[in-house]
Design a protein that fits this description.
With 953 residues, this protein is mainly β. It folds into 5 domains: 206 residues, Jelly Rolls (Sandwich), CATH 2.60.120.200; 66 residues, no CATH class; 242 residues, Glycosyl hydrolase domain, family 43 (Tachylectin-2, Chain A), CATH 2.115.10.20; 76 residues; 89 residues, Immunoglobulin-like, CATH 2.60.40. 6% of the residues lie in helices and 40% in strands. The protein starts with 12 loop residues before the first helix and ends with a strand.
Length: 953
């Protein structure tokens, strides 16, 4: 046969693979792997050019012309093929194929290698043969895509599509070369992946010829004008005028599979195997979607799972050979590793184990810490130089606010056999934060999946102490984005630490803009994204934390709650759980469902093994439970959870947070034995409201509940509890809907109609914050909106509520280009309780400026007590003024009563009194005017009134 029809390795990978194949054993899928498949080949675009704008058709005898590059040509000279740039609305480069390439084809096979970029936007077409209507919609087309993995043919438009798609709506792996084949003959369409049949449809009633004349035939571009272009690579694109057999499809896939298994075999790195002392981590998956299995020549030395058995101390080293079999699609490459296991050396192992111990944030301890009890093969015990500050179980007692940080030395002792090794860890425990009530709110959220910018974290803040009036910051641009995992962030949850001065942000690792939501529940991310901060402005480096086991298909909407009983955080999320953790075992999400899972942590670095929290399959295919959130009230823990059959929250409560609901004890189905008590179903169902779009909306679905209590002094009232529930666009809503109830127990949830929430906010968190935190956020992200004013200082007498100024001089955007002097600005001061104004105290009163700025008044209460009492002297009323001076300097006190004005000077720590007669036999109760000033003049004059009782003599 002509050599030009043989399958081949591609471009720059060929030499590398040839070298690898000389050192590894490659086991072919069948003995005839290099046989080409020329019969019926009508178009072959090998895409092996290195320059130019033409893709040659090398099929022998073909009358079909070459492909023409539209846009910038980019040829991959390393792995072979054409590189497609991708872009919205079909804006990326593409290869246009000749018109009517489908002419006369009552049967067809489309066969090619594809590498889908991890950055690919959904929904896209890898190839398309068809037409486009004047509206921009596709019509009469055949296409293939990887998200979901399927092929479609239609004699008309979208409504007539015939879908050839595997069950469970799977996706084609990204970032690896895959081989995709579609064959059709008669009424049977078959879709292959890597030479293996994935699905077939025996009711394909449209042939390629039935599409008629086609004038929009592309590699890398959709027939729909608004679809994104393909982003990735294609090579060796073939069209046949017949349906290839399964054997032929397998043959054509061999090169891709050989390349993948050989590269992944070469990439295995087990480290230095000349003196192994610990269990080996043996990879079971390769970067190119391969599976890796292991065999051993001597399980008594090293097992196929990587466990090592060391000889007695003083014995000779022992060796065994590990063999890795790297497989994909029936193609296998083997590689061997000689492992030498050292005999036991307990002293060295103990030293190594103690050096491997790591405890995060030892220089800034603010809450309980995790002290590991194992390191490698060693058991670890701990000692503390100050166990009353850091106990040996990691429980922390912080110094009081205002005290100095406390230095503590922790000592770890690692033990292996009879040998021990120790290591000291200096630690610093930060004093407790000052008590400071919250007076504003922060709202982190994301905005959807319509663009790359949507799945990033944005901030909104309340306009002052108002839970129902919000404004975005950072000019409505994101404040956090993901650089790890799927590089998309959804469902941000922020929790204030139990101690109050650290924050943790958790988010879902999901990029639905690129991959959609369906496939992410099958082999989606098992990680959560974590940041921490002490000010909500400066965040730590992102942590990509694996919390779910391999059986999980997704890890969605993580939240946390501090469990007082356990002294740690309970982190919970939703996961589909499948029977197998292997990526090679097909998964069907429609026969599966989301469970609520949980794990525990003290530091959001080290997490326990995940456990099932709610296992409840809901009516309907693939329905379970998602989006739990928790709040305490009167000793109970209330939990809101969305049931996917109704897509609306329900409420249950418990006093044992980690107690599970299982199919056998589910109280929602009448079973006994659960610690959870059902309280309320379908929160808010049936109410109506006017959305941000101005239309009337019926509330019947919602998710992503955020629970919070209003701040003291909130302009809407500071009683009750709020539940903000996200009625997303796919539920017919405009975003968040605020509900309020008198209590969690009452559950009398009513939509708050008068509100101004951030537009397009989706599944976030409402977090009450202090004035300092509020101003820090604005100063960092929107300084032009920050209103500032000098603090007010007043003094008063004990128990006397001072008069605070009605206006202060304020500036908006101080220090920015848009700085604006607001002049005298009205202040709405919070109430001041006279009982708090005790002698010598300093009380802070907060006021709101222009609706969304803050100012503080420092009220110093003089340690000078003045009282006026009445008595009868010669049948006339006499008023007696008594003064106690608790300050360290003499004061002069002037008192004006119906008996006239009196003045007296009182030494530090002394008492004095003066009496005067009114010359009246009867007086009514009244107030005496009092002023207190430093003796000798100068300084602050404090004025007030003191009540006296009426008397008749």
């Amino acid at each position: 046969m002509p050599s030009r029809h043989r399958r081949r390795l591609f471009a720059g990978t060929a030499l590398a693979l040839a070298a690898l194949l000389s050192s590894f054993a490659t086991v072919p899928a069948n003995a005839d792997e290099t046989v080409s498949v020329p019969d019926g080949l009508i178009a072959r675009y090998a895409l092996d050019e290195t320059r130019g704008s033409t893709a040659a058709n090398s099929a022998p005898g073909s009358t079909i012309g070459a492909g023409v590059v539209e846009g910038t040509p980019q040829w991959d000279t390393v792995s072979g093929g054409f590189v497609f740039s991708g872009g919205p609305n079909g804006s990326g480069n593409a290869i246009r194929l000749p018109n009517d390439i489908n002419r006369g084809l009552t049967s067809i096979s489309v066969d090619f290698d594809v590498w889908i970029s991890p950055e690919q936007m959904n929904y896209y077409m890898i190839y398309a043969i068809g037409n486009r209507a004047p509206s921009g919609a596709g019509e009469r087309y055949l296409f293939g895509s990887g998200d979901s993995f399927h092929t479609v043919i239609t004699p008309g438009g979208q409504s007539q599509e015939i879908n050839i798609q595997p069950p469970g709506n799977p996706t084609l792996a990204r970032g690896v070369w895959k081989h995709m084949t579609y064959t059709q003959t008669g009424t049977t369409g078959v879709l292959y992946e890597d030479g293996v049949e994935r699905t077939r449809n025996t009711r394909v009633t449209t042939t390629p010829a039935d599409l008629g004349s086609t004038v929009l035939n592309y590699l890398g571009r959709s027939v729909y004008a608004w679809d994104p272009s393909f982003q990735g690579k294609l090579r060796d694109f073939r069209i046949y005028d017949r349906a290839l057999t399964a054997t032929e499809v397998t043959t054509l896939s061999t090169d891709v599979l050989t390349e993948a298994t050989t590269l992944d075999a070469a990439a295995i790195d087990l480290g230095d195997l000349s003196a192994v002392t610990q269990r080996l981590t043996l990879p079971v998956r390769g970067a190119n979607a391969t599976t890796i299995t292991w065999a051993t020549s001597n399980a008594a030395v090293v097992s196929a799972a990587g466990d090592v058995t060391r000889g007695a101390e003083g014995a000779a080293p022992a060796s065994a050979t590990l063999t890795a079999t790297v497989e994909r699609g029936g193609q296998m490459t083997q590689r061997t590793f000689l492992v030498t296991v050292s005999p036991r050396d307990d002293a060295a192992d103990a030293r190594q184990a103690v050096q491997a111990i790591a405890v995060p944030r030892l220089d800034d301890i603010r809450e309980n810490i995790t002290l590991p009890t194992r390191s490698g093969t060693a058991t670890v015990s701990w000692a503390s130089s100050m166990p009353d500050v850091i106990a040996v179980d990691g429980v922390v007692t912080r110094p009081a606010n205002g005290a100095a940080p406390v230095a503590v030395t922790l000592t770890a002792t690692a033990r292996v056999g009879a040998a021990t090794a120790t290591r000291s860890f200096p630690a610093t425990v930060i004093p407790a934060p000052p008590a400071d009530e919250t007076r504003a709110y922060l709202f982190p959220y994301f905005t959807g999946e319509g663009s790359p910018e949507d799945e990033k974290i944005r901030y909104a803040v309340s306009k002052g102490n108002n839970a129902l009036d919000w404004v975005t910051v950072n000019d409505d641009e994101p404040v956090l984005e993901s650089n790890l995992g799927e590089k998309g962030l959804r469902d941000p949850f922020v929790i204030r630490s139990h101690e109050g001065d650290r924050f943790y942000m958790l988010a879902t690792d999901l990029n639905a803009y690129r991959t959609g939501l369906d496939g992410s529940q099958v082999f989606g991310s098992r990680h959560i994204e974590v940041w921490e901060s002490t000010d909500l402005v400066t965040w730590s480096e992102q942590r990509h934390v694996l919390v779910s086991d391999a059986e999980a298909g997704n890890t969605w909407a993580p939240e946390a709650y501090y469990d007082e009983r356990r002294g740690e955080y309970v982190v919970f999320w939703a996961s589909n759980l499948y029977p197998s953790g292997s990526a090679d075992v097909p998964r069907d999400p429609w026969s599966n469902y989301n469970r609520m899972m949980y794990a525990t942590t003290r530091d959001f670095v080290t997490f326990s093994k995940p456990r099932v929290w709610i296992d409840e399959q809901q009516p309907g295919a693939g329905n379970g439970t998602i989006d739990s959130t928790v709040m305490a009230e009167d000793g109970w823990l209330y939990r809101f959870t969305v049931t996917e059959s109704s897509n609306i929250p329900r409420v249950d409560r418990t006093k044992d947070l980690t107690s599970p609901i299982t199919p056998s004890n589910n109280p929602w189905k009448g079973a006994q034995g659960s610690a959870w008590e059902p309280r309320q179903s379908a929160v808010g169902f049936g109410q109506t409201y006017v959305g941000t779009s101005g239309r009337s909306i019926f509330f019947d679905e919602g998710e992503g509940t955020s629970l919070f209590r209003p701040n003291t002094g909130d302009v809407n009232g500071d009683d009750g509890v709020y539940a903000f529930i996200d009625q997303a666009p796919y539920y017919g809503g405009d975003g968040y809907v605020p509900f309020k109830a008198s209590s969690l127990a009452a559950g009398d949830w009513t939509i708050v109609q008068d509100r101004n929430l951030p537009r397009s906010a989706r599944h976030g968190t409402v977090l009450p914050i202090t004035v300092g935190e509020y101003e820090a956020i604005l100063e960092r992200y929107q300084p032009d909106r920050l209103i500032s004013a000098a603090d007010v200082a007043v003094s008063t007498l004990p128990g006397v509520v001072p008069t605070l100024p009605e206006t202060v001089s304020a500036v908006q955007g101080r220090g920015t280009a848009s700085e604006r002097d607001l002049g005298p600005t009205a202040v709405a001061w919070e109430g001041l309780d006279a009982a708090s104004l005790t002698a010598g105290a300093t009380v802070t009163v907060r006021g709101t400026l222009a609706g969304h700025g803050f100012v503080e008044a420092r009220v110093d209460v003089r340690d000078v007590t003045v009282s006026v009492t009445s008595r009868c002297v010669a049948r006339k009323v006499s008023l007696v003024t008594q003064v106690r001076n608790g300050e360290d300097a003499p004061v002069t006190v002037e008192v004006v009563t119906p008996a006239g004005a009196r003045s007296l000077t009182v030494a530090p720590g002394a008492r004095s009194s003066v009496a005067s007669t009114t010359r009246m036999g009867s007086i009514a109760a009244g107030d005496a005017a009092v002023s207190v000033s430093p003796a000798g003049g100068g300084g602050t004059v404090t004025t007030g009134t003191v009540a006296y009782a009426g008397r008749t003599c």
